[in-house]
Specification:
Elements (H helix, E strand, L loop, with lengths): L4 E5 L8 H14 L4 E5 L5 H4 L4 H9 L4 H6 L9 E2 L5 E4 L8 H5 L8 H12 L4 E5 L6 H8 L3 E7 L8 H14 L4 E8 L6 H11 L15 H8 L4 H4 L4 H17 L2
Length: 263
């Protein structure tokens, strides 16, 4: 039976391109023949909106067919999976009620491991090659749940003057989670929203590549209006405009992630 690899896309700084990177990497892994499950762990619903219309997403958010109800009731997540319009690519949608998940978890036994238990049967089934999870831009109990349910952490970092702000807190949180879930590894950092003409891009890359024991992906994502247009159309950028620059960059990143995990 094949092993399912679970990756959490997380950064405690908003605007890092976390949801966009998670969704587009998932799309291209699926295009490369991998079976992929996406899990939208953010109350902003951005990952869900990357594949379904606002009306459809709000419908799922207001029903009980979403991650919030699964975790709150500690249900098997296999019963909350929906198929996206794309082959090999499924989703567990989020809910606006996720804003209250910290409160729901507070009194639960082994609250840091609830999501891991909910996801256990899906992982053990071997149905998916990858489970990709989008975390909220916070470092609380819910983010800890997402990381404890993961094999790897991947950190998207925006190439901006403030892009590295808070990264030390992210590393500290990662090390705290590893005390509970020591098998969690740091897959690396991917740089997003790149403008190669700006000095701070080179500064960002120099700082990241100077870090010990932290891998910075060779593939990075440049600023591209096609990404925003694709988001507006509720599509991955590769489905919206196959030949655009960012589509090629996300495809390259997905291949680099897969190669790194199967080296």
């Amino acid at each position: 039976m094949k092993k399912t690899v679970t990756i959490c896309f997380a950064n405690n700084k908003g605007g890092s391109g976390k949801s966009t990177t998670c969704g587009n990497v998932g799309y291209y892994l699926a295009q490369q023949g991998k079976k992929v499950l996406l899990l939208d762990g953010d109350m902003q619903l951005n990952l869900s909106l990357s594949f379904f219309s606002e009306e459809e997403v709000l419908g799922m958010a207001q029903s009980e067919q979403n991650l919030y109800h699964a975790v709150r009731l500690q249900k098997d997540l296999a019963d909350f999976i929906v198929h996206t319009p794309y082959e090999n690519l499924d989703l567990i949608p989020s809910s606006t009620l996720m804003s209250g998940i910290e409160y729901e978890l507070f009194t639960k036994w082994q609250r840091e491991l609830i999501l891991r238990k909910c996801l256990q049967s899906v992982k053990e089934s071997g149905e998916y090659d990858y489970i990709l999870m989008d975390a909220p831009p916070t470092l609380g109990g819910w983010a800890m749940n997402l990381l404890c349910a993961s094999d790897w952490l991947l950190i998207p970092v925006e190439a901006s003057p403030w892009g590295l702000f808070g990264l030390a807190n992210m590393f500290e949180f990662f090390n705290t989670v590893r005390q509970i879930s020591p098998e969690l590894g740091l897959l690396g950092i991917v740089v997003t929203k790149v403008n190669e003409r700006k000095n701070y891009f080179r500064q960002t890359m120099d700082v990241l590549r100077g870090m010990e024991n932290v891998y910075t992906f060779e593939s990075y994502i440049k600023v591209d209006a096609s990404i925003e247009w694709a988001q507006d159309a509720s599509q991955p950028v590769g489905a919206f405009r196959r030949g655009c620059r960012s589509a090629a960059e996300y495809e390259a990143l997905a291949k680099e992630i897969d190669a790194r995990l199967n080296a």
